[in-house]
Please model this.
Amino acid sequence: MHRRAFLRASAALATLCLTGVRAAAAPLSRCDMHSHVGATRLDLREAMVKNGMLLIARTLSADRAVIQNEPGKGFRQVREPEPGELAAHFDGRLARVREENMNRNLTEVTSVAMLQRLRAGNEPGVVLAAEGADFLEGDLKRLETMRAKNVVHVQLVHYRVSEVGDISTAMPVHGGLTAFGKDVVRECNRLGILVDVAHCTQDGMAQALEVSSKPLVYSHGHVTAATPHWANGTRRARAISTAMAKRVAEKGGVIGMWTPRSQYRTFDGYVDALVETAGILGAQHVGVGTDIAGIPGGSVVPTYDDFALLDEALAKRGVSATDIAAILGGNYLRVLAQALVA
Model:
């Protein structure tokens, strides 16, 4: 029997033996900092409750219509958007996801009080997140509009060099963030929106750190000793340097480790990377951003059934229960709560 299947079967058997019939719902505590998991083809609420998931960042991007995954090169912008196109695309996707959340009875978190209610009531919830602020199309007022529609986690850039700034996988033209991009960071702080520097260049990350009055997250990627360069290739270019990750941690932020099979090869390899990164940054500054359903080539944590195996895998490597709880959810909850205070 496959190791993961064995662990799942063992856990299920233990549950039945303890209760005789059916176990009471386990406390929900795990969080995914970055996911593209859908709700229409999956009962997301059921999957979350089954696997102890308290909170998932459901991430939407506005630039999908103008980017393309080119074999061997990764995602690239292939054309310029029409005026209003990116905003309209994002608005449409957001409306559909919000309808899915309502149909699945998934609470959209918008405040610290709501976070506390979810935890007290042992109820799953979602964070509406934007992957790239392209939906603004240079209009800062749209950020307030999106906050009113429950978007509380905004990644500054994605796969398009934009009005906000440079991206990690293309030749830089702005030297990091633009003046508008820095205003976006300030406005996110003011409105109670978590700022995410994934996909930014190292210069952009440094500038966001300087401007922000609150901790930031790098929601999905990996840490590397070398300084990433846009010509490295998508996976390597997307990384955050150890020096920059330490700066994010020093400001109270969190580094979310993503899960591509092309990088870790195996589930155990990913667990090793979590332990190593926690050793570098401190366990209070590491989280999990699976990027489920968003990784070409597949993930070593493809479902929340697999996510639920991380507790035991980390414990076997000598990670304390306190640190496991922090890595698998507590750290994201902390930094999100700090951001939500407008």
About this structure: The CA atoms of residues 167 and 200 lie 5 Å apart. Residues 5-24 have pLDDT under 50 and may be disordered. The radius of gyration is 19 Å.
